[in-house]
Amino acid sequence: MSQAFFPAVRMRRARVSGWSRALVAENVLTPSDLIWPLFVTSGEAVEEPVASLPGVSRWSVDRLIDRAREARDLRIPCIALFPNTPPSLRTEDGREALNPDNLMCRAIRAVKDAVPEIGILTDVALDPYTAHGHDGLVDAAGYVLNDETSALLVEQALVQANAGADIVAPSDMMDGRVAAIRAMLEREGHRNVQIMAYSAKYASAFYGPFRDAVGSRGLLKGDKRGYQMDFANAEEALREVALDLAEGADSVMVKPGLPYLDIVRRVKERFEVPVFAYQVSGEYAMIETMVAAGGGDRDALVLETLMAFKRAGCSGVLTYHAAHAARLLG
C-alpha cells in the first residue's frame, strides 16, 4: 500500500469487533438456505446407521416423519428423499420406480400428511431401483439408453408428483428429460410442481458413501462417464444448464459441491437463476473423518464450507450437515 494512504485506510478497522463484522458481512447463511437429504428404508421403527457416513442413518417411513418434524422446527424449508430399495425389488428395468406405492411414494405421502408445511424434493433416476446400478436402461453392450430411459423417468416423476412431491429433481443426466417431464407435469395438472435439474452432474469419485446409503455399491457394472460430465469440463456445464432452462427447469444444480464452486459461480453469473449445489457424501465424510482424527472443529468446518457455497452464488445447499448447521445458526 502506498504510504500516501496509510494509515488513513486500515482494512482491519471493520474486523476488530463482532458487531462490525456482522454489519459489513457480504453474505449471510440461515437455515432457510439448507435442504436436508434423508435416506428411507423399509420396515418399522428402523434406524440403520450408514458406516461410511458417520452420523447419517437410513430411516423407516415412521421414523422419517420425526426427521421431517425436526427439519420444520429447525426452520429447514425442504428435505430431499432417497430410497434404499430392497434387493428383491431391483430389476434390470428398474420398474419399481414406477410403482405408485413404492418406498419413495409411501414416504412422500406420510411426510405430507404429518408435516404438510415442509417441502419435499424427490430424486428422479433409476439407479436406486436397477439391478445394475445405472441411472437408466442398459442395452446388451452396456450402453445406457437415453430416450427409452427418459420415457420411464417421466412416469417416475408422475408417480412422485401424484404422491405429493413439491420438487422433482432428475439426477440421471439423460438428454431431453427435463422437457419431457415439464410437458407431463403441465398435462397432468401438476403446474406448480417444480423441476430442479441436476444440470451439471459430474462423474465424480465423491459419491461412494451415497451408494452405500442407497444400497447400490457393488452393483454398478462399469462407470457413469458415458452420461455424467467429465470433471475436466466447464463450458459444457453452461451448455447443459442453458438446455435445461430452455426445457422448463425452475432451478439448476451443480454436483458435487466444493470442488466445483467455479461452476456454481459461472452458472450464476451467466444465467441469474436459482442455483443449488449438493455437498455430496464424500465431502461430508471428509469433514467427519477430519473431525474424528482431531484435525479440526466440526462446527467451524461446517459453517465455513456452507458459507463458501453462498459466497459462490448458491441459493441453497443440499447437505447432510443441514440439521447440525441449523442448530448452530439458531
Which key features would you list for this structure?
single chain; 330 residues; alpha/beta; TIM Barrel; 8-stranded parallel β-barrel; 11 helices; 38% helix; globular
Count the DSSP helices: 11
| CATH homologous superfamily assignment | Aldolase class I
Order the strands across the largest sheet as they lie in space: 1-4-5-6-7-8-9-10
- The name of the CATH topology is TIM Barrel
Based on the coordinates given, report the CATH architecture: Alpha-Beta Barrel
Cα-based radius of gyration, to the nearest Å: 21 Å
Outline the structure in words.
By secondary structure, the protein is α/β, with parallel strands linked by helices. It has one domain: Aldolase class I (TIM Barrel). Helices cover 38% and strands 15% of the residues. It contains 11 helices and 10 strands. It has an 8-stranded parallel beta barrel with strand order 1-4-5-6-7-8-9-10, surrounded by 9 helices. Helix 3 links the parallel strand 4 and strand 5. Helix 7 crosses helix 8. The longest helix has 18 residues. It is globular, with a radius of gyration of 21 Å. The model has no long low-confidence stretch (mean pLDDT 96).
Secondary-structure map:
Blueprint: H1 18-24, E1 34-40, E2 47-49, E3 57-59, H2 61-73, E4 78-83, H3 103-114, E5 119-124, H4 146-163, E6 167-170, H5 177-187, E7 194-201, H6 208-213, H7 235-247, E8 251-255, H8 261-271, E9 275-279, H9 281-292, H10 298-312, E10 316-319, H11 322-329
Parallel strand pairs: 1-3, 1-4, 1-10, 4-5, 5-6, 6-7, 7-8, 8-9, 9-10
Antiparallel strand pairs: 2-3
